[in-house]
Amino acid sequence: MYIKFCRSYGEDKKDEAKENLSSKLSVELEGEKGRPQLHFSKPSWWSVLLSLKCLANIWLMSSSSAKQTEANARLYRAGCILLTIMCLVLLLVVIVLSLKLQNGSHTDCPESEIPITPGHITPKSASPCNYEHCKDFFSSRSSIEAKHLGCRQCADGWLTFGRSCFFLSTYRLGWEQSQRNCTARGGSLAIITSREVQNFLSKEGNLKYWIGLRQKGNMWTWVNNTAIRESYWAGNAASGDCGILNSENQSDKNWIKAPCDAHTYFVCQLQF
Q1: Residues 159-198: pLDDT tens digits?
Q2: Does residue 3 lie within any of the structural domains?
Q3: If you compute the radius of gyration of the chain from its CA atoms, what whole number of angstroms results?
Q4: Do 196 and 159 fall within a single domain?
Q5: How far is it, in rounded angstroms, from Cα 187 to Cα 201?
Q6: Are residues 97 and 134 in the same domain?
Q7: Which range marks the domain in which residue 78 is found?
Q8: 132 and 165 in a common domain
Q9: In terms of domains, do 174 and 248 share one?
Q10: Residue 35: inside a domain, yes or no?
Q11: Distances 153 to 57, 169, 181 between C-alpha atoms, Å
């Protein structure tokens, strides 16, 4: 009985152990079944298309960016070239204007304006007529009395001769009034210091004119207080303390004397 009981008890324990093991395994399997499982699905066609589209967009963006960069570079180069050309043109204009300013405006001096005097050599070709040329030309020929200098023109109503302008009045005043009138014009009564000036005034005038000649004591002097170097007194010079140029007579003897309060025409001279 005891042996049978033990055998049955042992078998029961074995069966119980098997059941426990099986139940434990089943619990563990159920626990494993209850855990979240990772499922890896195969890629769909939609995701593949999206990927390809993204890659295409990236390629297009990179291509357009490269094209835009190249276009900007071309515009930059074109702008640089344009600015360089403009700078060169402006530089050329500045150089041309500088040369013109340095040389002056050149025009050919008419031959009629160049005086022909003894010892003067007429140039074979027309020379450029500008201020510097005239200044150098006439300063080196101080003895030349030119009718037209060309470098400076006298005002309307004045005559140009040598380095002076002359005004022959058309109305009569006394000697003192005539001198004041000439002073108001910026000059004085005419001072005749050469035969050329004497001949010029005698030729241009056809009346009797006060000149800047006056007697002080026993000496005749000009209005600038210089003494007479050459005189052209007429044989019958009359009397008076002021000098008149009578252009109706020959130029070598046409100075006459007259009272200073007498009224006659006058000649003003403006030197430059």
Answers
A1: 999 899 999 999 999 999 999 999 999 999 999 989 999 9
A2: no
A3: 61
A4: yes
A5: 16
A6: no
A7: 71-103
A8: no
A9: yes
A10: no
A11: 84, 19, 21
Beta bridge partners of 104: none
3-state secondary structure of 195: helix
- Do 121 and 144 contact (CB within 8 A), yes or no? no
**Same domain assignment for residues 160 and 232:** yes
- What is the separation, in whole angstroms, between the first and last Cα of the chain? 172
For residues 221, 222, 226 and 231, what is the CA-based torsion angle, rounded to 10 degrees? -70
Nearest Cα to 182, choosing from 217, 220, 218, 222? Answer: 222
Please report whether residue 65 resides in a domain: no
Average pLDDT, the chain: 74
Per-residue confidence (pLDDT) for residue 268, from 0 to 100: 97
Whether the CA torsion 254, 257, 261, 267 is positive or negative: it is positive
Structural domain total, the chain: 3
pTM of the model: 0.46
Residue 161: CA count within 13 A, CB half-sphere:
21
